[in-house]
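Run log, item B.
One chain of 147 residues. Sequence copied directly from the ordering sheet:
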Amino acid sequence: MDTQACPDAGVLVSTGAVSAAMGLRAMPVTLTNCAERDHRLNGYPDVRVRNVDHERMDVTVLKGPGPITQLDDPGAHPVTLKPGESARSVFVWRYSAVDTATQRGSGVYVEIAPAVGVDRQTVQPDGGLDIGETGLLGTTAWQKVVD
């Protein structure tokens, strides 16, 4: 494992492809333990959304996917990741119109931490988060990825 690329927090954050259907968006977020020791999680990711100018957007981040959609959420529970293991959260939101010329209303950058008080990592999801004026982003609790 390449520990030189591993942040001080001991985990790497990555995002998957955004699934878009009937105005509902879902994006998997994976957190991988890149340290040489176990990493413990318990709860939901800490998230901030920023626009194309890196300005913080007025987005309410929910612990759980409701009221956006019905989606299985394991709720906060202890998760232990051994080196190389991963956990996943799913981010969900409803499409809202975005100005394609200026990207106004689009969350271009997403800052994600495993929990409150841990350094966030900035990712740039392919296509961004077209939250627009809805201002709601639901998250599921971290759940261990099982091969």
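Observations after the first pass:
- The mean pLDDT is 90.
- The CA atoms of residues 102 and 123 lie 20 Å apart.
Flagged for discussion on Thursday.
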